[in-house]
Design a protein that fits this description.
By secondary structure, the chain is of the alpha+beta class. It has one domain: PPM-type phosphatase domain (Phosphatase 2c, domain 1, 4-Layer Sandwich). It is built from six helices and 13 strands. Strand 3 (about 20-25) and strand 4 (about 30-40) form a beta hairpin.
């Protein structure tokens, strides 16, 4: 009998993440996640990923970012950005997190330009809040439905641009209600921009088709399917760019009778 891997558990103000090559599973009291991150043929690159859980286990915070460039050449920037992100993710407003990071990235110059998405999931309220900085949108999958991108809103003026592009960029935070069993896909552009035969790119359509083919299967199997699909398309390797993606599944909320033993939970968030 094949052993089933147990996801690494974090809770009660713990943090998990980084910018290294990794293929792993992680669980918080709100979500179960499977991650793949490779670094353009190196052991470290410009992509980073982040999870944390609030002190009452009700709120999972998630982020993924992609520093301009790839591989070891930009790993020092992804390390710096990860520390900056870690210090600011407790802000309740994802747009405020991106506003502050935008100021910091601009201070480092053109080489530090970064795309990012920050999200927080409230387990008991079943709400997902998310904000983009020029990053590919989250993709939402629900039972019996095709996976659909959560596109950013249409706005006027400099809004939701990559970090470091413009000082006056305004970032918006959006909200969607999710239910147990709903799934999310977060990814960097190394997925959609994976090169194949000729000048063809893997693209959003192939990515969505791969997700739809694997609907309902365990997260770790979907991760392997997408990784293998990318490798086949690229002709044997993913050295073109850093390539990171996360698959998340929403878990059942805490029963009401247990919430009564955690006074002040919602007031603290």
């Amino acid at each position: 009998m094949t052993a089933v891997a147990t996801p690494y558990q974090i809770r009660c103000a713990e943090i998990w993440g980084g910018a290294s090559v990794k293929e792993d599973e992680i669980a918080t009291p709100g979500v179960h996640a499977a991650i793949h991150s490779s670094a353009g043929g190196d052991t470290k690159g410009g992509d980073l990923y982040y999870f944390s859980v609030c002190g009452y286990d009700a709120l999972t915070r998630i982020a993924i970012a992609d520093v301009r460039g790839h591989g070891e050449a930009v790993s020092h920037l992804s390390d710096w950005l990860y520390k900056a992100l870690e210090a600011r993710m407790n802000d309740a407003d994802g747009a405020a997190v991106l506003t502050e990071l935008n100021r910091m990235v601009r201070s480092r110059g053109f080489e530090a330009i970064t795309t990012a998405v920050v999200a927080k999931f409230h387990r008991d309220k079943q709400l997902l809040h998310y904000a983009y900085a020029g990053h590919p949108p989250l993709v939402l999958g629900r039972a019996g439905r095709s996976w659909q991108p959560l596109e950013p809103p249409q706005t006027s003026g400099p809004t939701n641009l990559p970090l470091g592009i413009m000082a006056g960029t305004r970032f918006t935070q959006e909200t969607v209600r999710v239910e147990p069993g709903d799934r999310l896909f977060l990814y960097t552009d190394g997925v959609a921009e994976c090169p194949g035969p000729g000048d063809e790119l893997y693209g959003d359509e192939k990515m969505l088709a791969a997700l739809n083919r694997a609907a309902g299967r365990p997260l770790d199997e979907i991760r392997q399917d997408i990784h293998q699909d990318l490798v086949r398309f690229a002709g044997g390797n993913l050295n073109h760019d850093d390539c990171t993606f996360l698959l998340l599944e929403v878990l059942e909320p805490l029963p009401i009778w247990k919430r009564r033993f955690l006074p002040g939970r919602f007031q603290s968030q």
